[in-house]
Amino acid sequence: MNTHKHHTWAEPYKIKMVELLRMTTREERLEAIREAGYNTFLTKSRDVYIDLLTDSGTSAMSDRQWAGLMLGDEAYSGSENFYHLEQTVQEYYGYKYLVPTHQGRGAEHLMSQILIREGDRVPGNMYFTTTRLHQELAGGKFVDVIVDEAHDPQSEFPFKGNVDLDKLDALVQEVGADRVPYISLEGNVNMAGGQPFSMANLRELRAYCDTHDIPIMLDATRTIENAWFIREREEGYADKSVRDILREICDMTDGCTMSAKKDALVNIGGFFCCNDDEVFRKAQNLVVVYEGLHTYGGLAGRDMEAMAQGIREAVTEEHMAARIGQVRYLGRKLMDAGIPIVRPIGSHAIFIDARRFLPHIDQDDYPAQTLAAALFIEAGVRTMERGNVSAGRSPITGENRRPKLELVRLTIPRRVYTQAHMDVVAEAVCDVYERRDEIRGLKMVYEPEYLRFFQARFEPL
Fold this sequence. Notes:
This protein has helices spanning 26-35, 63-69, 80-92, 104-115, 129-137, 165-175, 199-212, 223-233, 242-251, 277-290, 301-314, 317-336, 354-357, 367-379, 388-391, 419-434, and strands spanning 50-51, 97-101, 121-124, 141-144, 183-186, 216-219, 255-259, 270-274, 349-353, 381-382, 384-386, 407-411, 442-446, 457-460. It is α/β, with parallel strands linked by helices. Strands 2-8-7-6-5 form a 5-stranded mixed beta sheet, with helices on both faces. The longest helix has 20 residues, at 317-336.
C-alpha cells in the first residue's frame, strides 16, 4: 500500500478584508494602453485586473501592522515610533545607527552624496536603476562586477548574485582603492531575476575589502529573501533560521540602504544604516535637508510602527515559505508550458526572457516593453519592463545600452494574490505566447531625461 501523502501548499494566513477588482473588456484595455503610450507605468490602477508591476509598497499589511497604525506618535521630533523602529533594526539587522527615509531612493541619495567623490568608481553586483542614477548624480560611475552567470537567463547557477572577485580586483588595480568609495552589494539581485549571493562569496568579499580598506554597503531591500536562499542552497545553513542568517549577512557589511516597501511589508518607508560615527553624523545632517528631521525622515510615526512590526513578521519561516512558494508556483507553471524565463526561479518575481519570447523583434524596438503591453491587453495583467528601456542610454555614445538581459518582470506582491490569480496570469502568458509571431515592436516617441522607463511613451511600429 502506498503510504506517501502529498501535502498541498497553502498560505499561512486567512483573509480578513478584500478589495474588489474591476473587470475590463479587451477594447477597454486596448484604449487604456494607447492612452498610456504603451507604458504600463502610465496605466491607471483602476484599469488593472492583476497588478504585477512591482512588489514595492504593494504588499498587504497584517492586522498587527494595522493595529500599529493606531499607535502612531506624530510628534515632529523624537517620535516614540522612531525609537521602536531603531531598536527593531538594531536587533534584526545589527547596524549601530539608523536614519529613516521616505523610501529606498532617499537612502541611496544620502549614501551617494556622503561617500562618492567626482570620478569615483562604484562596483556592484549588477546595476539597479535608481541606485546607479544616484551614484552618477554624485559624480561616480557604476561598474558591474557580478559573476558572468548572472547575465545568462538559462544558467541554473544557484548564486547568480555573487560578486566576481577577479572583476573587482581588476577595477581596484586600474583606479586604485582610494577611488572606490564602497562596493554596492544587493541582496537577491533584482535585475538578474531576484538572484541571491552566497555567504561564502560574502566572506571572500569581506576579506578582500578589509585588505583594501573598502566598505561594503548592502542594498538590504530583499536581503531577508536572500537569507532564505542561503538556508535552502548553501551547505551548513539548513538548520539556521532566516533571522540568524540575515544578521550574519549584515554583520559582514558596513551599512545599508533599505526600501522597506519590499521585505518589511509596508506601503511606504525606508532607511539608511551604518556603523561609522562620522558617516552617521553626515547622514543625520543631510536627511534634514531632503527628507525631514532625523527621527522621522519623511515618514509619519504610524508608518515607522508598521515597519517595525513588518520586519518581525518578515523573518518568520512561515511567511518566507509562502512568499517564495507562490513565486515558484507561477514559475513552474510557465516552465511546464515552455515559456522562456530566467532560471533558477528567484524570490520576488518571474522574469520572462523577452529576447527568446519575441526573437523576431530587435532590441532597439523594445521587445520587453512590447511584451508587457501585450500582456496588459490580453488579460489586464500589469507587468514591468526590465531591459533596454530600463537600462537607458550610454552617457558617452547616446545609444541604448542594449543589456544582455531583456526581461519582463511579473512581480508578486506579498500576501495579496491567491493561487487562482497565478493560474490566470499563467494562462494569459501562454495565450500571448501562442500568437507571439503576430506581435510587432515599439518606437519611443517621448523620453524623459532620468529613469526613462517610468514615463517614456511609445507607439507601435
